[in-house]
Amino acid sequence: MFSRLLRRTLISTRNFSTSKHHNYKVAIAGAAGGIGQPLSLLLKQSPLITELSLYDIVHTPGVAADLSHIETTAKIAGFMGPENLKQALKGADLIVVAAGLPRKPGMDRDDLFKSNACVVREIAEVTAESAPKALLAIITNPINSVVAIAAEVLKKAGKYDPKRLFGVSTLDVVRANTFVAELKGLCPLEVNVPVIGGHAGATIIPLISQATPAVTFPPDQLQALIRRIQDAGTEVVKAKAGAGSATLSTAYAAARMAISLVRGLNGEQNIVECAYVESSVTEAKYFSTPLLLGKNGIEKNLGLGRLSDFEQDMVKKAIPVLQKNIKTGEDFVINN
Ligand SMILES: NC(=O)C1=CN([C@@H]2O[C@H](COP(=O)(O)OP(=O)(O)OC[C@H]3O[C@@H](n4cnc5c(N)ncnc54)[C@H](O)[C@@H]3O)[C@@H](O)[C@H]2O)C=CC1
Ligand SMILES: O=C([O-])CC(=O)C(=O)O
Predict the structure, then answer these.
(1) Ligand 1 and 124: CB distance under 6 A
(2) Binding residues for substrate
(3) Model ipTM?
């Protein structure tokens, strides 16, 4: 599991002269959770990160003490409770948010809005105050709506920079790569499938026509593959049978995204990841597409590329769903 991440991070340190920073502070909110703990462990492996700040409302002293014994450079600090949130985020270059409830069987991601909207609002408010220049990467569901909450909160505080706010949809790319590799007998590390749109059901749009290496499937197999990628979160929720949703694969995916963001900050070239961001690529105000990352977050939105008719149809159908999800997030900030 570590190989891809380690390879990425090791490559990035080897490629750099001493004039580059290598001293980034990353804060994780929800660090004691099912995603937060393995994510913290993975980020503790990165030589680019010199400070890891672990925030949660429970258990962070224990998680921090445990991780702090690992023989890598990142210094670990644990912060527990809202009174310590400001200090936890202070001066962070990147804040990753994995705080909030996960799904149980029978729930949609939208069912989490009620409980998680306040969590994201609180963290965005303190980000505006404590680390206004930080990149903010949100894992918490429902991504399609809560990214809009963070944007509105940052706007209210006069600190919003659309280049610095990300909904983490990397897990959809990771799953698409894995499933395509399985079907075609390829090494998953060599496969790249862009996944655009949002992060729920039919808004998850894998672009199999843009996969590298190029792959083709008969129509029924293509439909089944796309459906599996779209329903993969539910597949895990069902298998965990009430014990939560995907945590380990999410931690892997979020660590991949976090390390890519830090590599971008560090001036590395050609770092591309898909993420759910403010966008003018479609009529949906937020939309995931491949992004070129850099010193200020998003360097360039690489857009949709060339879509098959089938993919165009999926985009058309996803837009009204995303617009509704986004409005839910925006209305929450207006009305509360
Ligand atoms: N974007 C993605 O690809 C994915 C997103 N998720 C989402 O990630 C979130 C976290 O999932 P898990 O780690 O499995 O849940 P979990 O319940 O295991 O952990 C959540 C953590 O957040 C903490 N927390 C709750 N309220 C908080 C607050 N106000 N401030 C700081 N910490 C707070 C809890 O104490 C807990 O430690 C969920 O909303 C889930 O739906 C899950 C899988 C994939
Ligand atoms: O399905 C869920 O609730 C968690 C999630 O976002 C995923 O696994 O993609």
Answers:
(1) no
(2) 103, 109, 141, 175
(3) 0.99
